[in-house]
Amino acid sequence: MEKTNNKPYSILLYYCYAKIENAEAYREEHHLFCVQNNIRGRIIISDEGLNGTVSGLHEDCEKYMAYIHADPRFAKTEFKIDQHEKHAFAKIHCRYKPEIVHSSLRHLDPNVRTGKHLEPEEFKALKDQEDVVILDVRSNYEHELGHFKNALTLDIDNFRDFPEKVKELEHLKSKKVLTYCTGGIKCEKASAFLLEQGFEDVYQLHGGIIKYGMEAGGEDFEGKCYVFDNRIAVDVNSVNPTVVSKCHVCGTDCDRMVNCANPTCNDHLAICEKCGWELEGACSVECKENPEKRTYDGTGYYQKNSNGYNPFKGLYRTSTHEPHQHGEPTHS
């Protein structure tokens, strides 16, 4: 793995649709490997596959990728790799769930039928053609922060609402529909559902926005990309970047994403530096005055309370192995 800018950590984004027998037992094995190799992040394991974002030192991430690729079920897994100064997560959570992304489309298997995969340069070449519709399948707070130029966005709070919204797209069935999302996983089910509903010419951006930024310079992606780790938002476009989101409080151009400091609200919103400090990380005066408001440190990211956190929690077998520990790297 290539190291850049002397950043000692890697962040891996990946998914793989593959049948897993005894998925809950595999979740236990997978969790233990992460603990023993100082991998942190959020991983979902289900009968239909894997979905994760994790972080670790470069060498630990190499071991993790080798561990996944060594399993024939997941040999095709593609990792989007970014570099970072530190862990992007405080904990490791490896959970079993019915789906690797909550879609309400469990009957669809992307390994059987899904939209045609377009590599970033292919997507770039096709996206501006006259008979093409670029469809963002992400939630409101994601596409409001950033989206492709001229993309069609949907008013949805969760991906599970996507099937209902497709009813509004009937007039586009004769078009080439290019779907995209953060890393590609939502498009697997979204494009499969569009095909099931009678759309005939359906494509998906392979590797999503993240891969497009890495391999095609992010051209014509406007704003930033929301990510599900403590970075919250990342730059994508190094060719013609713009800011498309506005501060929720004052309306100025702003691509600084925060979670409201009021935990009962916790909305994902663009809030500028000035308003962030004035409202102490809250999205309104009402939220600022909430007695449960969290302490704002200028980032707008709030790690859940780690008191008493045990990385071995949820491991049912007794293991004689101790977790592999690393000291923090030192720099001159």
From TrEMBL:
Domain Rhodanese: 128-221
The enzyme's E.C. designation: 1.14.-.-
Record region (Disordered): 313-332
Segments of skewed composition (Basic and acidic residues): 319-332
Keyword Oxidoreductase: yes
Record-linked CDD domains: RHOD_YceA
Keywords: Oxidoreductase, tRNA processing
InterPro entries tied to this protein: Rhodanese-like_dom, Rhodanese-like_dom_sf, Rhodanese_C, TrhO, TRHO_N
UniProt keyword Oxidoreductase, yes or no: yes
EC class (word): oxidoreductase
Catalytic activity: uridine(34) in tRNA + AH2 + O2 = 5-hydroxyuridine(34) in tRNA + A + H2O
Top-rank taxon, per record: Bacteria
SMART domains according to UniProt: RHOD
Pfam family, one: Rhodanese
Family recorded in the similarity comment: Belongs to the TrhO family.
Function in brief: Catalyzes oxygen-dependent 5-hydroxyuridine (ho5U) modification at position 34 in tRNAs.
Protein name stated in the entry: tRNA uridine(34) hydroxylase
